[in-house]
Design brief:
The complex is a heterodimer of chains A (384) and B (424). Chain A is an alpha+beta fold. Chain A folds into three domains: 124 residues, Acyl-CoA dehydrogenase/oxidase, N-terminal domain (Butyryl-Coa Dehydrogenase, subunit A, domain 1, Orthogonal Bundle); 103 residues, Butyryl-CoA Dehydrogenase, subunit A, domain 2, CATH 2.40.110; 147 residues, Butyryl-CoA Dehydrogenase, subunit A, domain 3. Chain A is 53% helix and 15% strand. In chain A, β8 and β9 form a beta hairpin. In chain B, α10 packs antiparallel against α11. Chain B is built from 13 helices and ten strands. Chain B is of the alpha+beta class and 424 residues long. Helix content of chain B is 46%, strand content 13%. Chain B starts with a helix and ends with a helix. Chain B has a domain of 135 residues: Butyryl-CoA Dehydrogenase, subunit A, domain 3 (Up-down Bundle). The radius of gyration of chain B is 23 Å and the shape is globular. In chain B, the strands form three sheets. Chain B has a four-stranded mixed β-sheet with strand order 3-6-7-10. In chain B, strands 4-5-9-8 form a four-stranded antiparallel β-sheet, with no helix packed on it. The chains are: A alpha+beta (384), B alpha+beta (424). The interface between A and B is large, with 45 and 42 residues. Chain B: GO terms for molecular function: flavin adenine dinucleotide binding; oxidoreductase activity, acting on the CH-CH group of donors. Chain B: This is Acyl-CoA dehydrogenase. Chain B: Its cofactor is FAD. Chain B: Pfam families: Acyl-CoA_dh_1, Acyl-CoA_dh_M, Acyl-CoA_dh_N. Chain B: Keywords: FAD, Flavoprotein, Oxidoreductase.
């Protein structure tokens, strides 16, 4: 583990964050090692409920970044990044990103005290699983083009009902509460729907990355509760994307670093032509390129988290997050592929974990629209 | 006691206001078609124009020095100010707000690399003689390191130094010596014992370039100008007190220089070439060429900018660490790799946007002018340690991968040359 440890130790993390990193790493090594991940990934729910509740009770991970007023610890995004890096490194299959990052951020950003009071304490305690989707025309994350896939209309007895299909919803099959951005007469509106709402059909989907689950949700006259003001979801969604892409970048850096470390260790261990393959420049330079990509992604993810915490007054969270999303997505994908290449045939087997990182890398890169969307998103953030 | 930062800032502002003009307008205000459109990395000026620029650079360094800003981190015994790296960073960022002459010809090699080497390895009276003169803007120093047969494999230098009483007699040829044609002083690595292993038979000398037997010949680069040189040394007599470090311990001296070199090259972000990777400038380039709505061009622009911005974040974080007292380790080589990659990519991006107007000079503003940067980019992957050497450093010293087997660091240097020749 020389590679990652050296580069991690060399950074300017405070003692407190180093302790947090170590606690999460130790916990995941003990409770969610590769064997455990493989067991969970073929299971029905897609995560281990016991590990999930221990994460909340023993480490308080779900509450870490949430506001104090709603049962959280307000520890900040840099602390959240440390946790997500470790989760990404261990490929932890858990509804953390959907519930704590996506849904909780939307609830905070919407500024709706009633909804926040109703849902955030449960999310912080790990007892409520929530998710958020903003389905566009193809059912995946809405990238600004075309209409939202779910429409809201006034119900006969007052309130709203939803119709449409949210095609690709993160942890949509297991969430207790589903937040959706839907097309209302007033404009894009954030609403919530309980997982057992009438007219809601949830279908778990086959996924590229078995450690991350998605479901298709069909809504037919499904009653929903408005969160915040009708028509006000645009700015909420923009804020959620800034946080979510920065958070994802941290997770991607963790995964990418794991690939780099595995490949480095293998290059030292594997002997061909009578020497360690890592002594051949073709392999050595590949690993140096991987290191450069990981370091760059790490710098971008750190910057984005620091800017979200308000630590860099010059920084713009929209720009820093968009940069981090591009750089970390491309670094992870490239490093995950090169990890397989360094391993050769063994890296292409089901038994080797390299493919799990490859799957996670591509799945993460495309989660919010992929290269088609993220380049334009950055240009929009800098006004071009 | 170092001066308080707030007081220091006031002092710097006072100095700059008195001696320089503050720039108007931020980086965001690009007026396409107005002013200079050249984007240079290396000089392509005629020798007399360049000589004038060197004189201006020396004069500005002298002004800095006379006002106490010539060598902020240097010891006061040798004309330094005895302040910290933080003070230096603060000074640099404040000075960047003013229009001042580019002092790269003195600073990059001489003050950035040779100065610290003399300070670390020179005798007292040599430090006294050269350091105030260098930081005072009178003496430009250069490296005399690479040779025709010792490039990436620098420890294979063959230039001979033979002791004669209190002097050493130097014979050999150096090459790729940036700024030697403007310099008064060189730091030469010479073979003093070919019967020892290659790293252990080298000695470092300071060479007064006005001595008889020193012949400096500028080399014209592919970009058109001549920033680097061949230097021929024929029976050059160097006094023993100009030796840096012990006899046969010159490799250690060279490492001091090289460490400072990689830190300098990786840290560059400004300069005229900085404009090529500035977003407002690239936006105007796209607008002027009608490509602002072209999806493929937009995508490349975003990708280019993301890489550039992340590299800036990385440098900023390294600076923050430096301020907190953490010295950059071998991972700083990443920064140098990225700098070369980003500037190269930007030059080709701009060339693609400009299109055929880059292949022939139509006189249109902001088109053919990109050729200068484009033709400079190949050097970025070579100078200060090639990309391949940088990757070896990263892989071996950061990741801990094994060294290339078969590289002989044990046998006498004399035998290495013989066996390489006979097997060729």
């Amino acid at each position: 583990m020389s590679a990652g440890d050296e580069t991690t130790v060399a950074d300017a993390d405070s003692e407190e964050l180093l302790a947090l990193r170590e606690a999460v790493r130790d916990f995941l090594a003990a409770r969610s090692d590769e064997a455990a991940v493989r067991e969970v990934m073929i299971g029905e729910r897609g995560y281990d409920e016991k590990v999930w509740s221990q994460m909340a009770e023993q480490l308080g991970l779900q509450s870490l970044v949430l506001p104090e007023a709603h049962g959280g610890d307000d520890a900040g995004f840099v602390a959240l990044s440390v946790v997500l890096e470790e989760m990404g490194r261990a490929l932890l299959p858990a509804p953390f990103f959907s519930s704590v990052v996506l849904a909780a951020t939307a609830l905070v950003a919407a500024g709706d005290d009633e909804a926040a009071g109703r849902l955030l304490p449960g999310i912080a305690a790990g007892t409520t699983l929530a998710t958020l989707a903003a389905p566009g025309p193809d059912g995946a994350w809405h990238t600004g083009e075309g209409a939202l896939a779910v429409a809201a209309s006034p119900a006969d007895g007052g309130g709203l009902v939803l119709d449409g299909t949210a095609g690709i919803v993160l942890d949509g099959a297991t969430a207790d509460e589903i937040l959706l951005v839907v097309a209302a007469p007033e404009g894009p509106t954030l609403v919530s729907v309980p997982g057992d709402a009438s007219g809601l059909t949830r279908t778990a989907l086959r996924t590229l990355d078995p450690t991350r689950r998605f479901a298709s949700l069909t809504l037919a006259q499904t009653p929903a509760t408005v969160i915040g003001q009708p028509g006000a979801a645009g700015p909420v969604l923009a804020q959620v994307l800034d946080v979510a892409t920065a958070a994802l970048a941290a997770e991607q850096v963790g995964g990418a670093r794991a690939c780099l470390e595995t490949a480095t260790a293998y290059a030292k261990d594997r002997v061909q032509f009578g020497r360690q393959i890592g002594s051949f420049q073709a392999v050595k330079h590949k690993l140096a390129d991987m290191l450069a990509r990981v370091q760059l992604a790490d710098a971008a993810a750190r910057e984005a988290a620091a800017v979200l915490d308000g630590a860099d007054p010059e920084g713009d969270p929209g720009v820093a997050s968009a940069v981090a999303h591009i750089v970390a997505s491309e670094a992870y994908m490239s490093v995950a592929a090169e990890n397989i290449q360094v391993h050769g045939g063994i890296g292409f087997t089901w038994e080797h974990p390299a493919h799990l990182y490859f799957r996670r890398a591509k799945s993460s890169q495309l989660l919010f629209g992929g290269p088609n969307a993220y380049h334009e998103r950055l240009l929009a953030r800098v006004g071009i | 006691m170092p001066i308080e930062l707030d007081d220091f800032i006031t002092e710097v502002r006072g100095f700059l206001d008195a001696h320089a003009t503050r720039r108007t307008g931020g980086a965001g205000d690009v007026q396409w078609g107005v002013g200079e459109d050249r984007i240079t990395y290396f000089s392509t000026e005629a020798p007399e124009v360049e000589a004038k620029a060197v004189a201006v650079a020396k004069a500005w360094q002298r002004t800095r020095y006379e006002n106490g800003f010539g060598w902020l981190t240097g010891p006061t015994d040798f004309g330094g100010r005895g302040l910290t790296t933080v003070h230096e960073l603060v000074y640099d960022s404040l000075e960047a707000e003013y229009d001042v002459p580019d002092t790269g010809v003195l600073a990059v090699v001489g003050l950035g690399m040779i100065g610290p080497t003399i300070l670390a390895h020179g005798q007292e009276k040599i430090k006294q003689r050269y350091l105030p003169a260098m930081y005072g803007g009178d003496v430009i120093a250069c490296q005399l390191f690479s040779e025709p047969a010792a490039g990436s494999d620098l420890a294979s230098v063959e230039t001979k130094a033979v002791r004669e009483g209190d002097e050493w007699v130097l014979n050999g040829q150096k090459v790729w010596t940036s700024v030697a044609h403007h310099a008064q002083l060189g730091l030469a690595l010479c073979r003093t014992d070919p019967d020892r292993p290659k790293h252990r038979g080298i000695t470092a000398f300071l060479v007064d370039l006005s001595l008889p037997g020193v012949d400096i010949r500028p080399l014209r680069q592919m970009s058109g100008g001549a920033d680097f040189n061949e230097v021929f040394l024929t029976d050059v007599h160097v006094p023993d007190d100009h030796r840096l470090g012990e006899v046969n311990d010159g490799w250690r001296v060279a490492l001091t220089t090289l460490m400072n070199e990689r830190a300098t090259v990786g840290g560059e972000t400004g300069g005229p070439a900085g404009r090529a990777v500035s977003l407002p400038f690239l936006r105007e380039l796209l607008r002027a060429n009608g490509r602002l709505d072209d999806p493929a061009t937009r995508r490349e622009l975003a990708s280019l900018y993301a890489g550039q911005a992340a590299a800036e974040y990385m440098n900023r974080q390294a600076l923050r660490k430096l301020r907190a007292g953490v010295q950059p380790g071998p991972e700083a080589s990443v920064s140098k790799l990225l700098y070369a990659q980003n500037l190269t990519r930007a030059a080709h991006f701009a060339a693609d946007v400009v299109g055929p107007k880059l292949i022939a000079d139509t006189g249109e503003w902001g088109t053919f002018s990109w050729t200068e940067l484009l033709l400079s980019t190949p050097a970025l992957r070579i100078l200060g340690g090639t990309e391949e050497i940088m990757k070896n450093i990263l892989a071996e010293r950061v990741l801990g991968l094994p060294k290339e087997p078969g590289i002989d660091t044990k046998s006498p240097f004399r035998e290495l040359r013989r066996s390489a020749r006979s097997s060729a």
